[in-house]
TrEMBL record:
Biased composition (Basic and acidic residues): 18-40
Catalytic reactions of this protein: guanosine(27) in tRNA(Tyr) + 2 S-adenosyl-L-methionine = N(2)-dimethylguanosine(27) in tRNA(Tyr) + 2 S-adenosyl-L-homocysteine + 2 H(+)
Gene it is expressed from: Trmt1l
Protein name: tRNA (guanine(27)-N(2))-dimethyltransferase
Domain C2H2-type positions: 144-164
Biological processes, Gene Ontology terms: tRNA N2-guanine methylation
Length: 710
């Protein structure tokens, strides 16, 4: 055993193992070499938060990137993100400036991390004309922190990250999350909490669309449901497009046992989120969908006021299978595809509300789409918002008539992003015929924007321009008017229903809906706000709607309507018809914009003063929610302009107060009716012509020589 030294004895299985000395020295030398390698690995792994497979171009701080380069003043160091051919090794001050200006300043930030630009050969470079792949500017790229993709341009990288966020992909498999946080964001509205995804405001890219700007829309729908719940209880209501379930949760949380809420959505992820939001608001869930594991129907607990039924099916299917007292449709875009199903099984005297968000077609920006969806020809006018509301109601009327049902419009509101329509359903062919007769065509003058609904009847008129109050066809060449429609020609509001909605808004503290409801009541009655009263002109406890009396909660329970049927219909119809005869006239259709018809070089009067001037002239007048500078009045456009000119002051008279500008042949406000005033204008013009003729004759007799010379 020459050359062998026994340095250690290891007892294993009661045997002695002899290790040569040369092997021990090699092991000690290898252990000394491993120590600096371990230190080098500690330099590369600058943060314990990063896993080993994370790309080195993704860092949290600039100091981490400098540590990665291992800056030492006495040695030349290469850039860790650039190849040796592109950036040669240099001293620390120059390398630090290179890292800051070339890599860090052009990085893309995401949740506290920086994806710096990388010039390494991670991404293959396109070969040049010579055929070799030389490093060029095209070799620069970014590494995605989520999917490890390589993107060349910074703007493309930002868009790539945004697409991940819109899809809900915010966690990276390269970044370990020690304390995983919930991907949901909790939002609160009207004492109701809902969980939403970070991309909740993008309807095309999310399963749970939630728009905070539609809060006013949800409050109006809640007030309408609260009024219906006061007439009869309990009522079955459906939110056909639940998304996050915010609307159905508000119904169940505030109205409690008065309503039986069903929230439906065809998307599985949305249904899951609706269930979570129900538990978040301490509501019980009743599910009627079949699970994948077992085909049994799941029903949770007993059915009471705190229970919400959640269904997962198409909206048309759920409305065909069951009957409801209140249905709300709020799809993404138009709702015409769901109207037939909504009116098929809705109960008598029930309410259907729909929110249409296809503004581009309804506001006449895409006229061909409006013709395809609504079968209506429209153009851009000064009253385009009311035109959109009447277009939707016309489609609703035709859908209800196909099911032998009529409608009464309770509310029609055109907001910035949507058009809300609330109608009451009247069962029977007679109401259906009465409603269908109110769908007419509109004659619109393209020169002066005067408008009038076409008269009833099927006979073709020889000259339809005669129906317009203006004479643009006689004074202008060519065709001056266009036929719009078919449109709803009836009233857009029910005053009694709006007053009860206002009471519900006050009761539940819906501050945003109260000013709009007051404006709608004044618009429905065609009065100015100073004449607004919270009490109806008739009996406070009775409202005439749909040919029957609707009594409020102050009356006895025997006279209330119960569960979709008319009680003692013969008794109710008689007083209702007498009440209808005494009811005031409907509000005038459409409105005029005071700025659109202003006179150049004249200062207009204040809007509220102008309303008083029109009212003193004997016309009905009110403001409108469709246009902040709009005036709803039954005055023709010619009389509207006459009063506007009369009380406008010239622009160059700065110190002159607002007052009447006296024009020949004008209307004296408050003295004559419009017809008498028009006759007097004509007589004044004839008298003025006679006076000018007499004066000319006298001048000829007194100066015969001058006249002969002329």
């Amino acid at each position: 055993l020459d050359g062998l030294v026994v340095s250690e004895k290891v007892k294993s299985n009661n045997t002695d193992v002899k290790i040569p000395k040369s092997e021990l020295e090699a092991e000690e030398k290898g252990a000394e070499e491993e120590r600096p390698r371990e230190s080098d690995s500690n330099i590369l792994d600058v943060s314990s938060d990063y896993p080993r497979d994370k790309h080195i171009s993704i860092q949290r701080h600039l100091a981490d990137l400098e540590k990665l380069a291992d800056l030492r003043e006495d040695e030349r160091k290469p850039c860790p993100l650039c190849p040796e051919e592109k950036f040669k090794a240099c001293y620390s001050h120059k390398l630090r400036r290179h890292l800051q200006n070339l890599h860090w300043k052009v990085s893309v930030e995401f949740e506290g991390y920086r994806m710096c630009i990388c010039h390494l050969s991670c991404r293959p470079v396109k070969p040049n004309l010579a055929g070799d792949q030389t490093l060029s500017k095209m070799g620069a790229h970014y590494h995605c922190i989520i999917c490890s993709a390589t993107i060349v341009r910074r703007t493309d990288m930002i868009g790539h990250i945004n697409r991940h966020v819109n899809k809900g992909e915010t966690e990276s498999r390269f970044i370990p999350v020690r304390a995983p946080k919930s991907p949901y964001e909790v939002m609160k509205e009207s004492a109701t909490d809902v969980q939403v995804l970070p991309n909740h405001s993008t309807p095309q890219k999310t399963d749970s669309y939630f728009n905070p700007k539609m809060k006013l829309n949800r409050q109006l729908i809640f007030c309408a449901l609260a009024v219906l719940a006061g007439e009869r209880k309990p009522i079955e209501c459906l939110d056909a497009f639940g998304a996050t379930g915010i609307m159905g949760l508000q119904w169940a949380k505030h109205l409690r046992s008065s309503v039986k809420v069903t929230i439906n959505d065809c998307n599985e992820n949305s249904v899951t989120m609706i269930k979570e939001n129900c538990h978040l608001n301490k509501m019980k869930v009743k599910v009627n969908i079949k699970e994948e594991d077992n085909d049994e129907t799941v029903e949770n607990r007993e059915d009471n006021g705190d229970t919400i039924e959640v269904t997962e099916m198409d909206a048309n299917v759920v409305m065909h299978l069951r009957s409801f007292d209140f249905i709300h449709l709020d799809p993404f875009g138009t709702s015409v595809n769901y109207l037939d199903s909504a009116f098929r099984n809705v109960r008598n005297l029930g309410i259907v509300s729909l929110t249409s968000t296809d503004i581009s077609s309804l506001y006449a920006k895409a006229q061909h789409v409006a013709l395809r969806h609504y079968g209506c020809n429209i153009v851009r006018t000064e009253y385009y918002k009311e035109l959109a509301a009447r277009t939707v109601i016309a489609a609703v009327t035709r859908a209800a008539a196909r099911c032998n049902k009529g409608i009464e419009v309770l509310l029609a509101v055109a907001l910035e992003h949507s058009v809300l329509v609330v109608v009451r359903v009247l069962r029977g062919p007679t109401p259906a015929d009465d409603s269908a007769k109110k769908v007419r065509y509109l004659i619109h003058c393209q020169w002066c924007e005067e408008r009038v609904f076409q008269k009833e009847g099927n006979m073709v008129e020889e000259n339809p321009y005669q129906q317009l109050p203006c004479d643009c066809h006689g004074s202008m060449p060519g065709k001056t008017a266009v036929l719009l429609g078919p449109l709803w020609s009836g009233a857009l509001f029910n005053t009694g229903f709006l007053r009860r909605m206002l009471l519900e808004a006050v009761q539940y503290g819906l501050d945003e809906a109260q000013p709009l409801l007051k404006t709608l009541i004044c618009e429905a009655e065609c009065t100015t706000p100073k004449h607004f009263s919270t009490h109806s002109p008739g009996d406070e406890n009775k409202q005439e709607e749909c040919g029957v009396y609707i009594r409020t909660s102050n009356t006895s329970a025997e006279s209330c309507l119960v569960h979709g049927k008319r009680k003692s219909e013969e008794v109710l119809r008689g007083p209702a018809k007498r009440q209808r005869a005494e009811h005031s006239a409907e509000h005038p259709p459409f409105y005029y914009n005071i700025h659109r018809h202003s006179i150049k070089g004249m200062n207009m009067p204040k809007l509220n003063k102008f309303l008083n001037y029109l009212s003193e002239a004997g016309y009905r007048v009110s403001r409108t929610h469709f246009d902040p500078m709009g005036v709803r009045t039954n005055a023709p456009l010619a009389q509207f302009k006459t009063v506007l000119i009369k009380y406008s002051a010239p622009t160059y008279v700065g110190a002159q107060a607002e007052g009447p500008v006296h024009l020949p042949g004008e209307i004296h406000v408050g003295e004559e009716a419009p017809a008498a005033a028009a006759i007097k204008v004509e007589e004044a013009e004839v008298a003025e012509d006679d006076k000018s003729g007499v004066a000319a004759a006298e001048f000829t007799q007194s100066h015969p020589t001058h006249c002969a010379a002329d």
